[in-house]
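Quick one: structure for this chain?
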Amino acid sequence: MKIGILQCDSTNMEFRLEHGNYPDMFTSIFKNIEKSFEFTNYDVQCSQYPKFPCECDAYIITGSRYSVYDKHDWISKLENYVIELHKIKFPLIGICFGHQMIAKALGGRTELANQGWGVGIHKYNLIASKSWSDPVLNDFSIVAVHQDQVTELPEGAELLAESDFCPYASFRIDNHILTFQGHPEFTRSYSKALMILRRKILGEEVFKQGLKSLENPIQSKIIINWMVNFLKFANSNNN
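Got it. Here's what it folds into:
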């Protein structure tokens, strides 16, 4: 299966040698679960898109330091592309910014959250399990880095996971769209590096809580396994 990564940002240069860029993170953790997957990167900030959706079997929208409501041409173009993929029910996964973009593009709402910054390892309650969410968990924990949140789901979306801090943490639409607010591709070390970089922006209380949370277990590989299963299921239905 060929996965197109719609890259919406890049890691800071000082982090890249140790942590890689965002496509590297996705490729590495997916390859640990499913070695047969192939990846192609499209830098959507530079208007790089496939000529036709069928160039790949599915797409992943990455995170970004930008907000989906920022007035940039590349963001508007990506929003239109999400609408296009949804119309033809093409397999699509959204992570963080991607999660928020899919919600906004398809009629939901994303905005600056009253809860403030969410950083470090966050725990989410699973409220709906599917055939592809194997092994089944009652809850899961992954890294989070966000100030915006989805505050209204698009029509036809089913909520899959929630928390008190993030009520709309994961959703699906039919069998072709799956999203997560958290970052299963992020490691503890990268999360720590980001928090240190943004310490003044986060404030001391959020910064210290975020660092402390990195001691907690995470289920990133299980969530990636769910994504692999989902993409295989979505692709089989799309053929």
